[in-house]
Specification:
The protein has four helices and four strands, in the order βαβααβαβ. By secondary structure, the protein is of the alpha+beta class. The chain has a single domain, classed as Alpha-Beta Plaits (2-Layer Sandwich). Strands 2-3-1-4 form a four-stranded antiparallel beta sheet.
């Protein structure tokens, strides 16, 4: 069964390290999204915002950004290695370090890559 691994990373500086570690652990790819948590937006005090700010206005400050990284993994050994190398790089016991979870996925479409090269 495939598993979806989702990592919300507060320390964006180590994102490349995590991605490299995932690749070395056997993850075939990952998707990275720039994200911001609700608590950060509510806690941000900005006096330079327009009267009706857009989301882009709210997210202009770099320290408000996280990285949400996710990957699909079918092999249980690869999954365990990915979780292990992530925990070696992120101390989830510390506040505001990040969040990681795994969700079993019963069906996946488009996961297998097809070789498009001709004969």
């Amino acid at each position: 069964m495939a598993n979806l691994v989702v990592l919300v990373l507060e320390c964006t500086e180590i994102c490349h390290e995590i991605l490299n570690a995932w690749e070395e652990a056997g993850a075939s790819g990952a998707t990275i999204l720039e994200s911001t948590g609700l608590a950060r937006i509510r806690g941000a005090v900005r006096d330079d915002l327009p009267l009706v700010p857009s989301l882009r206005d709210l997210l202009k400050v770099d320290e408000m950004h996280n990285r949400t990284v996710f990957t699909m993994i079918e092999d249980d050994e690869v999954l365990e290695r990915v979780l292990e190398v992530t925990q070696e790089n992120v101390d989830f016991t510390q506040p505001s370090s990040g969040l990681m979870f795994v969700v079993p996925v019963s069906q996946v479409f488009g996961l297998k890559r097809h070789d498009t090269a001709g004969p």
